[in-house]
Each structure stands twice: as C-alpha cells, then as structure tokens.
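Chain and backbone:
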Amino acid sequence: MADDGWSSEAIVYVNGIRRVLPDGLAHLTLLQYLRGRRRNAKINPHYAVNACLAPLYSVEGMHIITVEGLGSCQSGLHPVQFVPYIFLYLGCTHLLVEISVHEALAQAHGSQCGFCTPGFVMSMYALLRSNKVPPSEEQIEECLSGNLCRCTGYRPIIDAFRVFAKTDNSVYTKSYPTNGEFICPSSGKPCSCREGKVHNSESSACGSTCGEHRPVSYNEIDGSLYKEKELIFPPELVLRNNLPLKLHGFGGIRWYRPLKLKHLLDLKSLYPAAKLVVGNTEVGIEVNFKNAQYPVLISVSHVPELNVLSIKENGLEIGSSVRLSRLQEVLKEVIAEREIHETSSCRAISDQLKWFAGKQVKNVASVGGNICTASPISDLNPLWMAARADFNIVDSKGNIRTVHAKDFFLGYRKVDLAQGEILHSIFLPWSKHFEFVKEFKQSHRREDDIALVNAGMRVYLEEVESNWQVSDVSIIYGGVAAVSLIAAKTENFLIGKTWDKNLLQSALKILKDNVPLAGDAPGGMVEFRKSLILSFFFKFFLWVTQQMNTNGFLKESMDGTHLSAIQPYSRPCSSASQNYEITSVGTAVGLPVVHQSAKLQV
C-alpha cells in the first residue's frame, strides 16, 4: 500500500501545553507516556478514560487534562472549583469557608492511602466539564461507579462531591429536632448522649459540640468563576484538521489511523490479521495481562461511516465504532420521542448499559468491538440476538452482506467474519405491538462487574380466538456456554402456545434440560447459575404478563408474592451519618483532624 497521504506527526495538549508525540511510541499507553514525562504524575484524562488502557496515539489531536492541570500544593489548588462549605451549629451563626474540590475531598476525609484519590477527582471533574447544567446526585454516584476505593468506604468521598449536585439542602440536615430531644443513632431511642457527642461535625467556637458539617447545594453557588477560569480547548486543535496517521512502536509495532472507509479496507486487505481498535479496552487487557502480541494496530475511531447513528423509519442504524456512552445517550432520546411499543428493545439495551461497565470504559469502548470480541459473558450480545438485530459486514471491495445476530457467533471468540471483512454497522429494528424485549444480568456486585449469567429475551404475542398465543420468541443466555446460547428447544416448544400459567410450568421443565451446565463448568457456582437460568425466564414471564394485564389485554391472575420479582431496581442515593465522641480537647487524638498528606494526595 502506498505511503502517500499518511502523516507521522502527532500532537496533543497536556494541561494546556503543546506536545509533539514522536514516531516510535505506538507500544505505549497514555499513562506510560505521561509518567515518563513527569515524575509522580497522577493521571486520568479529562473525559474519564482509563489512561492505563488508552493507547498513546489514540489521543492525538486531543487536550489531556491531568490532576496536575487542576492544581497542586505548589501552584495552588484549582481556583475555579472553589465551593463554600457551611458549618451549621445549633444556636450559633453560620461560618462560611471556601475550599476547592481538592480541599473538599481532603476536608471531608475522602482520602487515606491516596492511591485512588486522583481518579475520583478527575471523574468528578469530567462530569462537571461535560454537563451543561449542575449534575444530580444520581449522576455523581454513576460517574464514580468506575472508581474503586478500599480505604474510606466511599461515604466521605460522596459527601465531598455532593456540593456540586442540584439538590435540596435538606439532604444534609438530618432530622434535628426543635424540641431538644435527640434520637440516638446507636439505639434508636431518645437519649441525651448528644450533649457530649458530635454528629458529623467538629466542635464549634461557641463551646457547643453539637452540629452538622455540610456543603451547600450547587444552585446556591455563583458558577461564573467556574466557567470563566476553566482550561480552554486549544485554538490550534479547533482549527486543525485530523490527519491519517502512520506511526511505529517498539518491537516493530505499526499504528494506523485512517480517515476514510476505503483506506481502512485497503489496510485490512493488506494486513488481514491486524487488530482494529477504538477504546482498546479488550486488546489492552490481552496485551498487558495475557502477553498477546499484535504487530499491526488500526484505529477506526475516525472513520465517519463507522460512527453513524441514524434513526430510520424501521429501526436504528448503529455504526460499529459508536461509543457505548454515545449509544446510551441516543437510546434515551429515542425512548423519549418514539411510541412506547416501538422501543422495547431500546429500553432493554439502555437498561443493560447502565450496569455494563464504568463510565471510563463506556466513554471509549465501541459497540462493534464488544460484538466482535464474542465474549461468552457479553452483556449486549444476547440482546442483539434476541432483538432480531442484523449485522452489516463489508469486505475489502466495499461489498456489504447482512448476517442475523443469531448466526454471527460461531464459537468461543469466533465470529462470521472472513479475512479482510469488518463489521460495518448494526441495524436494530423497532419492536412491534405486543412484542416485548427484556434484559437480565446477575453478577457478584451490581455495578461495574462481569456477569455470572445474563440473558436477552423476546416474545411476540398474537390474539387467536380470544387467546394470546406465542407467535415468535427468542431466549438467549450468556455465561453458560462458550458462546451466547440459544435455548432453541424451549423456543420451539413455546411457538403457538397460549400465554398462561400452565405454559410457564411446562416451559420451565423443558428449559431446565435445554441449557445444560456441567458440574465442572468454568466460573464455578454451577447450582446458583442453574437457578438463574430458570429464574430469568420466570421473571420474564411475570413481566410480560404484567405488561399485558396493565394494558387490559390479559386478565391473568398473579400471585402477590411473585410481584417483587419484577419490581425495577432503584437504589436511592447514598446517605450516612457519623456519631462520635470528643474525648479530649487540645490534642489531635480523638479529634476529626484531616491527615497531613491529604492535600498532597488530591
């Protein structure tokens, strides 16, 4: 392939400073580069990306903001994030103290070992930068779901960042009685222990030890300072056109970034074994932890044809390079705008994406990458299969063929792609009247965890002689075989049957034998996973029946004890209180004092 038109000049901005990335660094991640440039760097890019996975050249033409860019003890903590904290004491005047988001985290005892602290700061900062309006408490907790802390228990971190939420201040004032009677947090009974204890507070200047420490809500803050002093996107990058890149790395690695589909297809024809990357969330794991070697990497993030998100008359076209977070946003828009019966599959995928991964992963991971990885525990592949999605595949000559999602997965991490072919786009048809699609997932923890078992299920009901019969059905499981498994025997049994309780019992008997799980199956917990296979279908039957009952099309009685199985999970925002006793005055022992390294860690 001719080298004409390819550029080896790569530039980025780091905290407002222009840097030229020399050729020969394709083997590095963003984290490795930044740590090599500056000692003790604490890294996490502006829009919440895992710098330990992001290839260095994948951020070419972008502005990288790190913790150092926000501020430090040497240069001063970032002034644009100064927010007031209020100390409330009964019978005392209010004391206002201004601190930054760094100081907020330090003052709220949000750091201990400090290892995770920069990540939390940057996740919160990215949320504020990407939101045009103050975020809700739910959004704050969601943006932090991809960050792990093993010291603090998260409460002080959440408390520190709540200042930015558009919330009622009453969330911080927890039931202080006006009659003086206090309910002890330990016993739940009236007591007078408050006289010598502090509830989430420090001793006040007037001698009272009773009080509350809280931030005011974001809507009480003048945001002009925050907006005017923010690091701007470099004008050079605004005016600069993207260039097709050809770069190299240690060990003969070649890195390409084509800007046209034709150039991508030419490269794939020239290097059939080349790995296509967008967010590098899977390839990066294979290279770093499984010692995989990929001499040719092709970034497909800048190919316009692969980034299409088009709402059509009969469905939604999704380019294979579309990021999962972008897909989630568009699905929410579609759900809000279209008829409810058309968006059953959209709602299922949107709900599954909520638990798919942390924000940092979804911001860069692509739809096509997740599909073509063909992981047996993929949360999305069972849903594409159940929802009757079609995959459009293009070869090196530009010819496009269509494969049903159910036929695309051939074996463990094997898909129906010939050499030189790539996944071009996914077509998700609108669901029909009386067609219901539902997602299921069970993992060790709800957020940011891989599935033990997941599933995608769909049923299309038709009225025949006053009975609602199964016209079409899909039952797909993940985490029970080398590929996403179709429960074909159960599907065939259900076709033409009347949708009632008798059908449920019969289907469960067939399903039990239809999805076998060996006693030594990889992943263990075999008996529990077997129970999940049946319980998912049980929940699906209850959910569909309730939908039909609610709309007046069915009058199937439902056991009240079963209804809890289909209640949507909604976790309220985290809340907590502290109750401790001031045992000594004039010494740090026993006092809620910020540790000395806190401001260095943020």
About this structure: Residues 304-566 form a domain with the Uridine Diphospho-n-acetylenolpyruvylglucosamine Reductase; domain 3 fold (CATH 3.30.465.10). The CA atoms of residues 22 and 156 lie 42 Å apart. Residues 526-550 form the longest helix (25 residues).
